[in-house]
Amino acid sequence: MDAGLVALIVCAAYLLATLVMGVLPGLRVSKSVAGYVAADRSMNFLVLYFVLGASIFSSFAFLGAPGWAYSRGASAFYVIAYGVVGMVPLYFFGPRARRLGARFGFVTQAELLARRFDSRGLSVLLAITGVAAFVPYLVLQMKGAGYILTTITNGRVSEAVGAAVTYGIVVVYVLFSGVLGVGWTNTFQGVFMMIIAWFLGLYLPYRLYGGVGAMFEQLAASDKADMLVAPGLLADGSPWSWAGFSSAVVVSGLGFSMWPHLFMKSYAAKSDRVLRATVVLYPTFQIFLVPILFIGFSGILAYPGVEPADTILPFLLTQIELPALLIGLVCAGALAASMSSGDSILHSAASIAVRDGVAKLIPGSLDDRRERFAIRVAVVLVAIVSFYFAVLSDMSLVDLLLAAYGGVAQIFPLVFAAFYWPRATGKGALAGLVAGLLVNVIFLRHPELKPIAGLHEGLYGLGANVSALVVVSFLSRPEDPARVRAFVEA
Amino acid sequence: MDDPPTPVPTQRAGLVLFPPGTSARHRRRRCAFVAVWLGVVAMLTWPVYPKFADSLPRILGLPLSFAWVILALAVMFGALLLLFLTEEDTDRGGEG
Q1: Most buried of A9, A150, A239, A370, CB within 10 angstroms?
Q2: Are A81 and B44 in contact (CB under 8 A)?
Q3: If residue B59 lies in a helix (H) or strand (E), which one and from where to where?
């Protein structure tokens, strides 16, 4: 049988298994919004662990990280570095958010902040920021899925059809089961991804160089030795500055736990202890990036000049003689990386658009049943918009995604102030968020204006954000002490 | 007749890192953990990481620059695990 066909059958079997695993939990979750968005606050440790882990490891991790290691060398260590420090804030914020969620019925991040700061405007702005940040992130996942199916079928399945089939399945189980469908599929996908990553990460260096140590020795002895020295290279091949690397680690680390789809999972946790245990064990998920980077490093000497660099993993698969069944499994693993992030993003974007946007703009317009229906409509709309950008548009996604990360990091000062600074006011929070977002976008668009070249624009945004938050809070009337106490003493 | 003006609420100007009633032991433990966390941030950024940014020596076959990041991951994991295991169950609230 044709090798491509075997691989395609394996992927089809994987997609079918994912569909079944995603739909089944929907049979036992309640029909309320809390059931659809926060799994009735009942997620156990196993599911939450994989939801948090697999939601973060996306097409970027499976295709982009090896691409970075291949083309930019030690720069790729940044991907591990920011994750190491980025999950920690959730250990402190998460349980407080969970308890407040159970008490006040929150299911989104903006609901918590809007209540603490008594600001509907803040809720709407966070909804816009969240959805704007999610769309490019979802587009990348769709493009990754389309690319994989195109590669293994030698172009017989187009990228558009590949993305449509994969995300058609995601839409079905997200519509049917909500976050619980995301949870169980992510568990399945997470296990699958880990096995595939470790297998390929150890096998490729062994096959091409005789082992991981031998691979790095040969790299160090070659004219590519500089690629092993941190902080590595920029995309154009010039050295990355320490200012750029360090600020990228700090901004991404602060933004990491602020991604609304990640933060919202605090509400789904069964208990504080389950949530904390998940954060504690998160580095065991993070370690799987190590073999992922081995894959990229293994291509540097063996196959120089692969363009674009993000295709190094599929390229290696076509160069190494692997059984068709194994190629199918690897591609299914890459699909799992795309889908496990895509489903969570899709679900969160729709929930946020309805709960924090529409429902706040037109108060009292949605009862529980209508809201659940509206979220489902939003799931389909967000999927269609993202599909349009993924397939029909040549828009620069890298710019959008970079702006998205810098933007998401601007939520950090607000969450911190909500829990730890009683004097913070709604006007201060709104001013801080607006200032942070504006400065981030200005320096992203005009990097030549940065006072220190190379410093991540998100860091300037955070400076403006904190300054505006503090100054405007002190200049405005303090918030109601009873309301503030509920958050500070949660 | 005009309504009396609403009194302006007062609020503490500084940070409140722990809710009232938090034990001194709990505060110390969490402060120590945050210090470790900041230490790990320093390990992975300028000016500490540049001192361990070379490819030599090789640690278990990996370049020093790579092994250093994995060490930071291990330190963070150890610190999180220690904090978790030594903290009392706070599910009933109060010391989040």
Answers
A1: A150
A2: yes
A3: strand B58-59
A43 bridge partner residues: A269
pLDDT band for B94, please (50, 70, 90 cuts). Answer: very low
8 A C-beta contact, residue B33 and residue B77: no
Partner-chain residue, chosen from B17, B65, B93, that has the shortest CB–CB distance to A99: B93
Distances (CA, A) of A116 to A107, A475, B42: 14, 18, 32
Nearest to A38 by CA among A120, A97, A116, A121: A97
Residue A175 tokens read as 């519509």
Q: How far is B30 from chain A (nearest CA, A)?
A: 10
**Could you give the ipTM of this predicted complex?**
0.89
Q: Which of A103, A212, A229, A241 to mutate to test the interface with B (most CBs of B within 10 A)?
A: A229
The three-point CA angle B39-B43-B46 to 5° equals 110
Q: Which of A81, A420, A489 sits opposite B20 (nearest CB)?
A: A489
Phi, psi of A309 (to 5 degrees): -60, -30
User: CB–CB of B37 and A489 under 8 A?
Assistant: no
Q: Is B46 on the interface with A (CB under 8 A)?
A: yes
Q: Which amino acid is at A345?
A: I
Residues of A in contact with B9 (CB under 8 A): 477-481
Report helix, strand or coil for A223: coil
CB contact under 8 A, A228 and B55: yes
Indicate if the pLDDT at residue A1 is higher than 80. Answer: no
> Whole-angstrom Cα distance, residue A435 to residue A428?
10
Per-residue b or e along A334-364, where b marks 16 or more CB atoms closer than 10 Å to that residue's CB: bbbbbbbbbbbbbbbbbbbbbbbbbbbeeee
pTM of this structure: 0.89
Tell me how far apart the alpha carbons of residues A348 and A375 are, in angstroms, rounded to a whole number: 9
Taking only residues 23 to 42 of chain B, the set having a beta carbon closer than 8 angstroms to any beta carbon of chain A reads: 37, 40-41
Across the interface, which of A225, A245, A474 has its CB nearest the CB of B55? A225
Tell me the CB-side half-sphere exposure of residue A230, using CA atoms within 13 A. Answer: 31
- Between CA A128 and CA A132 the distance in angstroms is 6
Give Dmax over CA atoms of chain A in angstroms.
74
Alpha helices, DSSP H only, in B1-96? 24-43, 64-86
